[in-house]
């Protein structure tokens, strides 16, 4: 609840600062996580459920989009929708905002890394979950994977994360394939 109130305050200030619809931003901030109470019944991301609930009750399309686009997997259609995303990111990023225990955090990070390791196998050199699990950076062995295979692997890993993992926001999958030629002048 404190996240929602904080988000409403941040959203209000942002909207006022840029001349956006303050009321719409505050309403979207208030309703953005309502779908979390139904995730045990509906197999869908909470922000999609929040949008469905808003549509069910006949809320304005602009408001619905601002609610369901707050994780950016749905395209924001207005400045207000972008402001809701920003307010959520600001509130969620401050120290102490997440209730995850250290153990849960480590488990989530390791789960993300394990998805890549399972799909990449011996073609991988290193796997790192960085930016608090919002990016998965993978270094591959250049002799074992081509550029085209690397692109397919990135897509496969991202799809597997979507299907099997529970994570806040988006996870960017970055694969790095580097070849070097080194000579030493003596």
Could you characterize the architecture of this molecule?
- Helix content is 53%, strand content 10%.
- It is mainly alpha-helical.
- A hairpin with a 4-residue loop joins strand 1 (124-130) and strand 2 (135-140).
- It folds into two domains: 2-93, Hypothetical protein af1432 (Orthogonal Bundle); 102-177, GMP Synthetase, Chain A, domain 3 (2-Layer Sandwich).
- A three-stranded mixed sheet has the order 1-2-3, with helices on one face.
- It is built from seven helices and three strands.
Strand-helix topology:
Blueprint: H1 2-18, H2 22-31, H3 46-56, H4 61-68, H5 79-93, H6 102-120, E1 124-130, E2 135-140, H7 147-164, E3 172-177
Parallel strand pairs: 2-3
Antiparallel strand pairs: 1-2
Helix pairs in contact: 1-2, 1-5, 2-4, 2-5, 3-4, 4-5, 6-7
Looking at this protein, list some descriptive labels.
186 residues, mainly alpha, Hypothetical protein af1432, GMP Synthetase, Chain A, domain 3, 2 domains, 3-stranded mixed beta sheet, 3 strands, elongated
In short:
This protein has seven helices and three strands; from the N terminus they run ααααααββαβ. It is mainly α.
Going by CATH, the architecture of the largest domain would be Orthogonal Bundle
CATH class of the largest domain: Mainly Alpha
Share of helix, binned: 40-55%
Can you list the strand order of the major beta sheet? 1-2-3
Average pLDDT rating: 89
Summarize the helix and strand pattern as letters.
Answer: HHHHHHEEHE
Distance between the termini: 67 Å
Q: What's the CATH topology name of the largest domain?
A: Hypothetical protein af1432
* Number of structurally distinct domains: 2
Q: Say how many strands there are.
A: 3
């Amino acid at each position: 609840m404190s996240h929602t109130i904080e988000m409403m305050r941040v959203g209000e200030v942002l909207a006022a600062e840029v001349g956006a619809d303050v009321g719409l931003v505050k309403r979207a901030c208030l309703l953005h996580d309502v779908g979390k109470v139904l995730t045990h019944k509906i197999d869908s991301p909470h922000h999609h459920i929040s949008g469905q609930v808003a549509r069910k009750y006949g809320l304005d399309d602009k408001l619905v989009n601002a609610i369901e686009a707050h994780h950016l997997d749905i395209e924001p259609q207005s400045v207000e929708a972008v402001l809701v995303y920003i307010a959520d990111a600001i509130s969620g990023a401050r120290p102490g905002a997440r209730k995850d225990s250290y153990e849960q955090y480590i488990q989530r990070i390791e789960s993300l890394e394990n998805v890549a390791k399972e799909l990449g196998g011996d073609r991988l050199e290193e796997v790192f979950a960085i930016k608090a699990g919002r990016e998965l950076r993978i270094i591959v062995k250049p002799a074992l994977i081509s550029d085209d295979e690397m692109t397919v692997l990135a897509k496969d890993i991202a799809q597997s994360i979507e299907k099997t993992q529970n994570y806040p926001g988006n996870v960017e999958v970055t694969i790095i394939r580097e070849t070097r030629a080194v000579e030493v002048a003596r």
